[in-house]
Every structure is written in C-alpha cells, then in structure tokens.
C-alpha cells in the first residue's frame, strides 16, 4: 500500500487544524533614532564674523578717541568752539549725529566745500548706520529716492571733531586769511570798503564809530583807493 509522504519533510503541516508558529516576542529592531545634525558651519562662520566686526569697531573707536585727543590738543580754544558750534547748528534733531546733507553744510560753514563723492567717502569710512526707524534714516531713504544722495550713514560728533581738527591743522594759513577776507568782501569785489567794515562791525556787535572805521581803512590802504585789497589784507594778517 502506498504511503503518503510529506514533501516538506517531517514536522507539522500547516492548514490542518494546526496553528502557525508565533513570531518572536521581541523582534529585532532594525531602525534607530537619527542623531541631531551638528550646528551648520554657516552659523559658526556668521558668529565669527560678527565677533570680528565688533572687535574692529572697538579698535576703531579707540583709534578715533586717541586721534581726536591729539588733534584737538593742537587747536586753540576758538577753533574747538567753532567745530562744536558747526556740528550743533546742523544736528537738527540733537541726537549727536549728522547725515549726508547736514555734514555737507557743516563742513561748508567751516570753510570746507567738498564735492559729493568726498563727503560720501568720509561717511563710508567713519560713519555708522542709522538706527532703524530713526528720523534721519527715513529722511535718508526719501533723499535716495528723490535725489540719489545717500543719507543712511551718520557721522557722530567725535568723528566729526577729529576729521575737522585734522583738516584745520592741515590747512594753509594763507587760505584761512583769504577765507576771512571773503567774509568781509561782500559781492566779491576784490577789496574791503568802508561799507564792508561798517557792516561786519555791526554784525559782530563792535561799537566802532565811523571815524574809527575810516582810520582803519586809511592805515592799511597802501595804494590810496580808500579800500583794502586782498594782498593788503594778507599782509596785515601775516605782518
């Protein structure tokens, strides 16, 4: 009699009322929780650059303070006051900073009529960015839109003092005399008349009489034209 055989070999046969073997109670875990990635190198680089900028800013402030002290020490009291008055006059909102337009007129008041690109160069080298939401920043943005004149950089009082002191010390004394002459010579006639002297004396509050002013003209008028020429004025000041 033929005997049945199990082609799968000895052992239980599935599907004949027998249950399949159960899975292990603790199956192997083939997955692992990924570790957090290291901080991106870009963030580290940005932090390093920020620290470097702060270090350079501190060094620049120290340099400016030293330069300011040395330059201002060489000026006389009147010159120091002139610098302070020019800054305060054009720092319209009294925040200790002046923008492009205020710097331009403040320097012109001190006798330095610089072209636009030189003023921008000073601001880029020695200025600071206007704080967000400040009036000067808003006015600067409007100026850029309508006139193309950058006003976002501001110049602080100490930087202004240093720059102006250096320029005054480097200025030719004869240029100073010519500038003073031009303040007297109304209309650019090339000479100072009795009328010019009278006007300046009145503006300065000097109580000089008509005869005293005539005597001043006569004393320094070398060519007898009843006026003081530029050369005569220079000789008086250098005399």
Radius of gyration: 41 Å
The profile of the biggest β sheet is: 3 strands, antiparallel
Shape: elongated
What structural class do helix, strand and pairing data support?
mainly alpha
List segments where confidence is low: pLDDT < 50 over at least 5 consecutive residues: 138-151
CATH topology heading of the largest domain:
Recoverin, domain 1
How far apart lie the N and C ends?
A: 151 Å
* H-E order: HHEHHEHEHHEHHEH
Can you tell me the CATH architecture of the largest domain?
Orthogonal Bundle
User: What strand line-up does the widest sheet have?
Assistant: 1-3-2
> How much of the residues is beta strand, in percent?
5-15%
How would you describe this structure to a colleague?
The chain is mainly alpha-helical. The chain has two domains: 119 residues, Orthogonal Bundle (Recoverin, domain 1), CATH 1.10.238; 66 residues, EF-hand (Recoverin, domain 1). 58% of the residues lie in helices and 5% in strands. It is built from ten helices and five strands, in the order H-H-E-H-H-E-H-E-H-H-E-H-H-E-H. The strands form two sheets. It has a three-stranded antiparallel sheet with strand order 1-3-2. The chain has a two-stranded antiparallel sheet with strand order 4-5. Helix 2 crosses helix 6.
